[in-house]
Amino acid sequence: MAELSDVKWKEFSLTEIFPIIKRGKRLKKSDHLSGVIPYVSSTATTNGVDGFIGNQGRVRVFNNCLTVANSGSVGSTFYHSYQFIASDHVTQLKREGLDKYAYLFLAPLVQRLSEKYSFNREINDDRLKREKLIIPVNEHGEMDFEFMSKYMREIEIRTLKPIIDKLCIRLIHNEISGGGNSIHPNWKPFPLSEIFTILPGKRLTKSDMTEGLRPFIGASDSNNGVTAWVNNTNESLDSNVLGVNYNGSVCETFFHPYECIFSDDVKRLHLKSGVDSKYIMLFLKTIILQQKCKYEYGYKFNEQRMLRQTILLPVDSSGNPDWHFMEMFMRKLETQMLETTIEIFKNRINVNKCKWGGKMEADFS
Length: 365
Description:
Elements: E1 8-13, H1 14-17, E2 20-23, E3 34-40, E4 49-53, E5 61-62, E6 65-69, E7 77-80, E8 84-86, E9 90-94, H2 100-111, H3 125-130, E10 132-137, H4 145-177, E11 187-191, H5 192-195, E12 196-199, E13 211-217, E14 226-230, E15 241-245, E16 253-256, E17 261-262, E18 266-271, H6 278-289, H7 303-308, E19 310-314, H8 323-356
Parallel strand pairs: 3-8, 13-17
Antiparallel strand pairs: 1-10, 2-9, 3-4, 5-8, 6-7, 6-9, 11-19, 12-18, 13-14, 15-16, 15-18
Helix pairs in contact: 2-4, 4-8, 6-8
């Protein structure tokens, strides 16, 4: 497999690379119908998907292509293997016959256009069609999409193999520990104050943040609550703890086994029992999330309400929380997910090897 530095590169206009360039169509939020079709707009996260809708008429439906954001998160580029509805804030880039791996090779090259544009200088249709990219070519100077596809397949194999090894180790560890039952006969309500010690976060403004490698946990509903990476430290420094939002995305709960600091919009919950297990914490995270429907921005999940809030937990014969059941139950769920994921990754590697005759070692015994 040739490396990127070993192949020839040549400049082509975007219209030569992608003969089909088409803008999405405006669809106001108030006109969205509930459904399951991804709606792709100019967000820089979740592969550009801004929601799921069911509109059928007066929309533009694309699939198997790249989208580039014209406004908003200008230049954000994603590959979509599925059918989706595109907003007028993104443009479809498509070439018939390309597979997903060639598209994935081209996506970061298109993404680099974002360096030239911003919210105040959007990528309109004319600017986009004047853009050029430098891409690999074959010995005849033609665009080498086969190399791009093969290169990305090789990258996928190299990436998946160590992941499979790690997942297999975790799977073996769970099998040694034993699986849990799916149903527990006895449940009992407990106030959060009986189960957890509840501690505050600490206010840290954007202007006071210094860039670093420590996660800063804010009142977000995504990225495990991590909203920044900082070099700061304060009295909220913690680990092996649940972070529960009382503000912002109220009641969202995440487990943090790593060292991090917390916003004053997030409460830190430590188990009083002294039990130290990520599986128990993940079980409790899900239980706390069941209360989300009660709270909102106008009715915050503050410390006083947390102390009074009750949750249902499985109990042992003495009426105490059944920590062993919680751990085994979550281990069983993880085992099921690991087995499925490992099988999917193995199949993907084998397909790639058969497709291109790769020589990478893939012994999964």
